Amino acid sequence: MIRPALNRGEVVISERFTDSSLAYQGFASGNDPELVRQVNSFATGGLVPDLTFFLDLSAEEGWRRVLERSGAEDRMEAKGLSFQEKVRQGYLRLAAGEPERICLLNCSGRTKDELHQCIWELLMDRFPLLLVKN
Questions:
Q1: What is the pTM of this model?
Q2: Strand, helix or coil for residue 44
Q3: Total of domains in the chain
Q4: CATH code for the domain of 91
Q5: Which domain holds residue 120?
């Protein structure tokens, strides 16, 4: 779905992509991150996002929000707080390694509206032509 859309000149926005695989299956699960990166590259034909937003929050705060949201855990959340901290540290390593692509946004104490505005401004700064209609 992604490559054909890009070939048509469309903008593609995805909730998660290969960075998630690296954070969860690589860094947090103890698998070789370089091997996970290679598998991702093969699976995506080498696609890498132009811009990624990492919404950072302490593992404790994220855990609290998950439980408030539904009281239920999904498969990854069921692995516990220490696993979630490893995921967060993996994302932080990725962000530190690619600061030109990965925008690290501190979510502590920020409302959804504040984060929305921040993301919109960063997106428009990076891709101002998105507002231009053909």
A1: 0.84
A2: helix
A3: 1
A4: 3.40.50.300
A5: 15-129
